[in-house]
Structures are given as C-alpha cells and as structure tokens.
Amino acid sequence: MAVEGKTIDALSQFELAPALGPIGASVNFTQSNLFMLIAAGLILALMHYGMRPAAVVPGRFQALAETFHEFARNLVVEQVGPEGRRFFPFVFTLFMFILFGNMLGLLPFAFTFTSHIAVTFTLAMIVFVLITVVAISLHGKKFLGYFFPEGAPIWLAPIIIPVEIVSYLSRPVSLSIRLFANMVAGHVMLKVFATFIVLLGGLGAVGPFIAVLPLAVNVALVGFEVLVAFLQAYVFAILTCIYLHDAVHLH
Amino acid sequence: MEVAAAKALGAGIAVIALFGVGLGIGNIFSTLIATVGRNPAARDAVFPIGILGFALTEAVALFALLIAFLILFA
Questions:
Q1: CB–CB of B55 and A231 under 8 A?
Q2: Is B23 in the A-facing interface, judged by CB distances under 8 Å?
Q3: Using CA atoms, how far apart are residues A206 and B60, in angstroms rounded to an integer?
Q4: ipTM higher than the 0.90 cut
Q5: d(Cα A132, Cα A81) in Å, to the nearest integer?
Q6: Structural domain count of chain B
Q7: Structural domain includes residue A64
Q8: What is the reported pTM?
Q9: Does A8 map to a domain?
Q10: What are phi and psi of A2, to 5 degrees?
Q11: A32: containing domain
Q12: At B7, which CATH number?
C-alpha cells in the first residue's frame, strides 16, 4: 500500500509499549495495563464522588452514575428475571469496564485495551466459566439436559447434541472476537482516513482542498465510533445476561 | 502467481461474506422500523432484540474481516 514511498501504517497503533518509564519496563507494565487502571479508577471515582451527595434531586455526576446503574439493572432484570438480581454487580462491572475502555480509546493518544484479543477473550472466559459454574451448581446433573432439549425426537440426538455442544463452546470465541474486531476495525478505519488527509495534503496546490474530504469523513467516523463503543459494551452485557438466563433457567 | 498478489486476492474473496451481512442487517432494521411504525408501544420490547440480532449478524462480518486480516498480515 505504498504511495510515493509513504505507507498506510494502520496496525502499529495496537502495538504494546512499556509505560511509566524504566519501572514499568522492568515489570512489563504496558500502556494497555495503564489504561485499564485509568478506566477502573474513573469508574470508581464516578461511583464514589457521584453518589456521595446522595441528593434527592441529583447533580450532574449523580445523575450520570444513577443512569448507568439503572440501565444495567433494567438489563439484568429484564433478561435474567428477578432472581438474576444477584448477578447485577458482575454485569454492571463488566459493562462499565468495557464501556470506559472503548470510550477512553477514542481520546487522542489513548490506547484501546479492548482492541486486544487477550483482554476480550479473558473477559469472555470469565463469563463462560461463571455461566457454567452457575448452571452446574443450580441444576447439577440436569445441566447435561441443556444439550438435548426436551421433546426432541431421540433419533435426532446424534445431530443435536454435537451442534449444541459446539454452539455452547463457541460462545466465548464469538463474544470476544466481536468486541475486539469491532474495536480494531473502527480504529483501522480512522487511521486509514487520517493517513489519506496527510497524503492528499502533500499533493501540491490543490491537495489541501481535496484533503478536506477525508477529514470530514473522519469527523463523521468518530461520531460513529462513539456509537459503536457504547453499542459493543451494551451487546457484551446483554449477551452475558442472556447466557446467565440460559444458565439459571436451562432453556 | 506471486504470493503478495494471491494474498490480496484472498483477502478480497474473504470479505465476500459482507454481501450476506449487508442483506441481513438491512433486513433486521427494516423489520424493526416497520414493527415500531405499526406498534410504537412495542418499541421498548423490540429494540433490544433488534440490537441483539444486529450484533449477531455483524459478528459474521467481523469474522470475515478477521480472516482477511489474517491472510494479509499473519
């Protein structure tokens, strides 16, 4: 993809580099870890300082904290049912962490830690292990009935059971790849159009005028990426809730 | 054939899946809009399902994109 010696380098933005100088380098503390800590700190600060006044008429931060809380609570109660309320802290934590990770990644010079499959797959595996443990502890041996729905003809068993097992095992894969690929695709797109601006700007006298076009596209894309950042956190949370529903009710 | 050319062709072929995904996502949202238009009261009940269908369909596109990236860069 070389244009007169200049290249579109879209993937180097995802490379990990040590953060916090020599101390960080000695313990392999990368900017990914740094932004995870920043996201966690921001969430804790929002929840702590937002809810400290605990006013009847909320201020700005309290309204924000309460909106997030209510949003996640409705999600859990609607998808899992009233008995799913004990999973609310888990879903809320997951939702906020992914949301803040996605949103932080949109700031200039920031790093999107959700653009690494190691991070998203870890989150998805936590969900997967949790739903399996919940299903087994609630239903015991009946959990195996999950892979063969009641009422299906017995001669279909050799087909249904492998299909159900594969679909169950592919849950963490699809959950993690969806989030990671969305983030990577969005940031690659932003970087490609940003490179177009630079390349077109260097094309003589008319270049800067044409370069306005990719700039406009990039502005629109940032807006779209904000939507995607929220949507992917929402989708991750709602899929977690649906899996929890399956684990609690078995179909 | 040169390896680089074959890689570029392969990556292009891998994203043909986007044809079906485009159809699918368009279908989901057209049905969602029609449903909300017919019965605006159903909006809250239907919207999460629509977004879920969108996410599941979009995953197919992203799998194809991932394969394209693997062919190009891995």
A1: yes
A2: no
A3: 41
A4: no
A5: 18
A6: 1
A7: yes
A8: 0.84
A9: no
A10: -90, 130
A11: 17-249
A12: 1.20.20.10
